[in-house]
Structure formats: structure tokens, C-alpha cells
User: What shape does this take?
Amino acid sequence: MKQLGQHPPPYHVIAHLSDPHLLAGGQMQYGAVDTEAGLRLALERLAAVDPPPQALAFTGDLADKAEPAAYARLREIVEPAAAAMGAEVVWVMGNHPAAPAADVARSRADRAARPGPPRGILAGHLHFSTYSLFAGIPISVASGGCYTSDPAPIDRFVSGVSSGQAFTMVHAYADRLVHTIVPLDRGTEVNGLGLDIKEAIEGLSVAEARELASSKTSAFNARHEDHDRPA
Assistant: This one.
């Protein structure tokens, strides 16, 4: 598709998924959360991302109780989906497993291409999306895939809720990393553009394509304003 922004396509794309907390044997986490269903939903949403990721980085707690069967199930679900995308899987174990590891992940391809001062740290465990610095290195923490921590609980010190689950897309450019949160819940569409705009803009200049796609008064948007909304 024609480049409309200031950046060329990213040279690496990484999907950052965190804290699936998978359980064996169809168990429900806290009697309420279907962790396998959450993982499958994340992978379904990820399959629609364009461009597709070159790596899936899993941080936080991969399995809730360190059950061998849960790890086997995790691989059964994730690895075929990653292969279909042409993506490598990077597993980073959390504190629930029996042999915890540092909760930091970078794609192997990025390490090979840019060895040395890291460009960013991917982390989990907090169960909500947040950002900071560690020793001057930007840190991106991804939301939980099973449940999330409410950052503004009412009359509770800590509150885990089945809402706001998401993963983060990491796009690597020559001078920066761009992090985009992708909610698992698609939400209700209130406006949009159909796929036919991809054909419409290919033969136009960048300035003309921007006008066609973004201006409220363009012929394309005037034609699609009312007709592209789902019933």
C-alpha cells in the first residue's frame, strides 16, 4: 500500500504478548477467566495485523501454575499460528514458572542487526500497559492477555478485572521504536473506510491520496460517510 506517513515501512515488526497464564485441563483462572480462549483471541487478532510480525515475544507468566501440560498446550496453540505468519517465537519465563528468568525480550534478528546499547525493553507482569525508563533504556510493559489490573480501582487496594486485555505491536525504524496497543475486544465500529480505498489511492500522488482519505469533503469520504457503517 502507498506510504502516506513520514516513515518508510519498519525494518522489524514484533508482537509483544504478555501473561497468558495458561492452565492445564480446561481450568478457569479464579473460576472466571478462560485463559486459553484469551490466548486464541489474541492470535486471531494478530493474524489480521498488517504488516505481520517477524517475531512473537511472550513475557510475563506463560503458565499460571507451572504445569508441564500447560506449557505443552501453549506451544500447541502458539507455534502453528506463528508459523502461519512466518514469525519466530521468543519465550521469556516469568515468576510463576519453576525456573524464572529475567523478563526482558528482544528479537534475535534485531540483536544480530544491531548488537550492543539496547533500543528498548519489553516486559510483563503488571497486567496493564505502561511505559518508563530503566538505566536510560525505554521500557514497554504489555497488558495481560488473561485478565488486567485496574489502575484506578474503587474501594480496593488491588483489583484484577476481565477487561481491557491487549497486546502491543512494536515497529522498529532506523531512529525509534513505535509501540501500538491492540485491544482483544474489537469494539463497536462507529466509522471506517472500506478496502476499496486501497485501489483508489494507488494511482494518486501522496498529497492527493491524503486528501482523498482524510478530508471530510473529499468525494470518497462523502460517498462512504453513511454507507460503510455496519448495520
Observations:
- Residues 98-113 have pLDDT under 50 and may be disordered.
